[in-house]
């Protein structure tokens, strides 16, 4: 009886010790239990808001459109300096010298042929014309289309002929040539010739502006256009020299 009691007591003690170890391990496991998915989602994540470019309105003077590249461009002057806007507007009614309020914001463009390098450009959102330029005023007082002619052997593209037309019209609208002003006042038909000439080893497109009389054109002003630097010159006949023309 004595030995039997001793054995049972020992067994009971070992069982109690084993239960204590299991309970301790359970408590440890509970302490290092990974957070549930729900607990992770309750953690707030603070992100910095992306700052969007604000639209800006600038008063500029329109000079030309250029729709021949990857992006349509509207060229203008602002504070006597040149500026340009990319745009996808359908309106192409502006004429050289028109004053507009241009609403734009900075945007990113990618330069083709340069590894798609990103660059910042002014993106025109809208515009409002606030004043007619001299070309717009000229068209109102002289409603006739300008006529022009060139040699049948010349190979001028339509886009270049259009460029020369606008260039010539801009000159006429801003001219101080009294003979030309008289033609405009009497609304006589203005016609100009186009040809190529070399002067001092420089190639020029030469424009002769005059009026049509008895099926003949009387030239009252010669212009020289350097296509390389887009500079227009008046020909000073008495001094045989070229004078850069400016509308300012």
Can you summarize this structure?
This protein has helices at residues 2-31, 37-41, 134-141, 158-174, 178-185; strands at 56-66, 73-78, 81-86, 99-111, 117-131, 147-150, 190-199, 202-213, 216-226, 231-236, 241-244.
Give an overview in words.
This protein has 248 residues and is an alpha+beta fold. The protein folds into 2 domains: 56-131, Beta Barrel (OB fold (Dihydrolipoamide Acetyltransferase, E2P)), CATH 2.40.50; 135-244. The chain contains 5 helices and 11 strands. It has helices spanning 2-31, 37-41, 134-141, 158-174, 178-185, and strands at residues 56-66, 73-78, 81-86, 99-111, 117-131, 147-150, 190-199, 202-213, 216-226, 231-236, 241-244. Strands 6-7-8-9-10-11 form a 6-stranded mixed β-sheet. A 5-stranded antiparallel β-sheet has the order 3-2-1-4-5, with no helix packed on it. The chain starts with a helix and ends with a strand. Mean pLDDT is 83; it is low at 1-48.
SSE string, helix = H, strand = E? HHEEEEEHEHHEEEEE
Oligomeric state, counting identical vs distinct chains: single chain
Structural class estimated from helices and strands? alpha+beta
Question: Got a strand count?
Answer: 11
């Amino acid at each position: 009886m004595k030995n039997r009691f001793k054995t049972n007591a020992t067994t009971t003690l070992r069982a109690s010790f084993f239960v204590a170890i299991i309970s301790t391990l359970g408590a440890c496991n509970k302490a290092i239990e990974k957070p549930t998915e729900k607990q992770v989602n309750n953690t707030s994540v603070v992100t910095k808001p992306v700052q969007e470019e604000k639209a800006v309105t600038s008063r500029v003077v329109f000079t030309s459109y250029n729709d021949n590249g990857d992006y349509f461009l509207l060229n203008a002057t602002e504070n006597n300096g040149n500026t340009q806007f990319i745009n996808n507007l359908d309106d192409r009614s502006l004429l050289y010298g028109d004053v507009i309020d241009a609403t734009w914001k900075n945007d990113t463009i990618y330069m083709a042929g340069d590894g798609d390098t990103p660059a910042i450009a002014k993106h025109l959102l809208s515009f409002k014309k606030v004043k007619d330029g001299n070309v717009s005023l000229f068209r109102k007082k002289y409603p006739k289309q300008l006529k022009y002619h060139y040699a049948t052997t010349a190979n001028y593209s339509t886009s270049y002929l259009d460029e020369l037309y606008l260039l010539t019209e801009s000159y006429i609208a801003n001219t101080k040539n009294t003979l030309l002003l008289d033609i405009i006042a009497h609304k006589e038909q203005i016609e100009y010739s186009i040809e190529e000439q070399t002067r001092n080893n420089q190639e020029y497109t030469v424009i002769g502006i005059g009026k049509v009389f008895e099926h003949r054109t009387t030239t009252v002003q010669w212009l020289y256009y350097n296509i390389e630097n887009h500079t227009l010159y008046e020909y000073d006949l008495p001094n045989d020299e070229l004078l850069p023309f400016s509308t300012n």
